[in-house]
Design brief:
The chain is α+β, with helices and mostly antiparallel strands and 408 residues long. It has 2 domains: 187 residues, no CATH class; 135 residues, no CATH class. The protein is 57% helix and 18% strand. The strands form 2 sheets. It has a 6-stranded mixed beta barrel. A two-stranded antiparallel sheet has the order 8-9. The chain starts with a helix and ends with a helix.
Length: 408
């Protein structure tokens, strides 16, 4: 009970001191306000970056494996050059994987090329033209907004049909329906049978600026001997690692990789991107937190300086309180509470400033000031005040009441 009473008394004395020195208290909180605003915006930006990235790679699917010749990430130029010398993945190998794989729900070849797409006098440049089969709808989580996706017969027969992305449809068909229209891709005419729903972008590349055609048409019209990727959707997420090992064994057999030799292909998955992103995001967060930590450190030094001044000014008050029975703990709590209160006030002002700035950030990425970020900001404010005010409070608590009363 004594501790609670001392805390309550310390709060009242602290707020009286803050009200009595409004200008000094306001100037003291500036450093904390800048630090807490920085911390809040940094936390919000990192949270928004994570949300934006996870949203952009969600189309990859946690239960989908991606076989490529070179792999997605390399630690050095030499590693990339070595991977680039590997043999291409052929359509025959894709078919063998389709025939032998047991733990797959869908398997689709994937090959792409940048081509212009025209309709009447309108044109979209550098459109990603994807050659694949009907299984691509399942392996890559494509969603058809209008019309339909290609059928197995159209994929095998190589009929000149295509499914266009949302951006391509917007560019070429602003005032008329796209379905049933004939577009020119390269030098070949294709019939539009479907329009994909809007997907967004990843790594700055739009997923809506693409056209999907049957793989046979792609080989005939755009790339005679392409280097394929193989997209494999596993039968069950729990069997992902088993499916990965099965796929690896099949690929080593059909690509005639000798026993003991390293794979001449790479099997990637969503987790590979997440690991790389988390490393990069962790580095960015560490640098950002170091910078914000410096801001808070400077603000804390300011608080400590002002608290030493406050202790010096109120030496006689400390002597009187100790003379009438106040314990060291009561004096310590009084000044610690005052420092923490100043910082808490600064934290609240900082949150009021950061809120509209967060709304501005939210226009560019899915960021918001969540309750955990608010809680962390206030906790950081209080801890900064408590740590900065400890030495001045300790000095006040250890004063000799006789010496303090003699002070003029």
């Amino acid at each position: 009970m004594n501790f609670l009473y001392e805390l309550k008394e310390g709060l009242w004395i602290s707020w009286d001191a803050i009200r009595a020195n409004k200008m000094r208290s306001a100037l003291t909180t500036l450093g904390i306000i800048i630090g807490v605003v920085t911390v809040t915006l940094m936390g919000t930006a990192i949270d928004g970056l994570n949300r934006s990235f996870l949203k952009s790679i969600s189309f990859l699917g946690a239960d989908t494996l991606y076989v490529t010749r070179t792999g997605w990430f390399h630690n050095s130029h030499e590693s990339w050059m070595k991977a680039n010398r590997r043999r291409q993945i052929t359509m025959a190998q894709v078919r063998e994987v389709q025939r032998q794989m047991k733990l797959s729900r869908a398997i689709a070849p994937f090959v792409a090329s940048g081509e212009p797409v025209k309709y009447k006098n309108r044109k979209s440049d550098s459109v990603m033209v994807i050659g694949t089969t009907d299984q691509f709808l399942y392996t890559d989580g494509m969603t058809v907004g209008e019309g339909r996706f290609m059928s197995a017969e159209e994929a095998d027969g190589g009929r000149p049909v295509c499914m266009i992305g949302f951006q391509v449809a917007t560019n070429l068909f602003p005032n008329e329906p796209a379905l049933g229209s004939k577009v020119k891709i390269g030098g070949q005419t294709f019939e539009v049978i479907g329009v994909m729903e809007k997907q967004g972008s990843i790594f700055g590349e739009s997923l809506d600026n693409q056209v999907v055609v049957p793989v046979r048409q792609f080989i005939t019209e755009f790339w005679y001997r392409p280097d394929f990727e193989i997209h494999v959707k596993v039968i069950n997420l729990a069997l992902l690692e088993d499916a990965k090992e099965e796929l690896r064994g099949i690929l080593r057999r059909i690509r005639h990789v000798p026993p003991g030799a390293e794979d001449d292909f790479a099997i990637e998955q969503q987790e590979s991107i997440l690991r790389t992103f988390n490393r990069v995001a962790g580095t960015i967060a560490a640098i950002g937190l170091f910078i914000t930590g410096l801001s808070l450190f400077v603000g804390g030094i300011g608080i400590m300086n002002i608290m030493f001044v406050s202790v010096a000014e109120r030496t006689k008050e400390i002597g009187i309180r100790k003379a009438i029975g106040a314990k060291r703990r009561a004096i310590l709590i009084q000044f610690l509470t005052e420092a923490a209160s100043i910082c808490l006030l600064g934290g609240l002002i900082a949150l009021a400033i950061a809120w509209p700035l967060t709304l501005a950030i939210g226009r560019f990425m899915p960021a918001r000031m969540s309750l955990p970020i608010v809680g962390i900001a206030l906790l950081v404010s209080i801890l900064t005040g408590a740590l900065s005010g400890f030495f001045p409070a300790w000095r006040a608590a250890r004063m000799n009441p006789v010496d303090a009363l003699r002070n003029e």
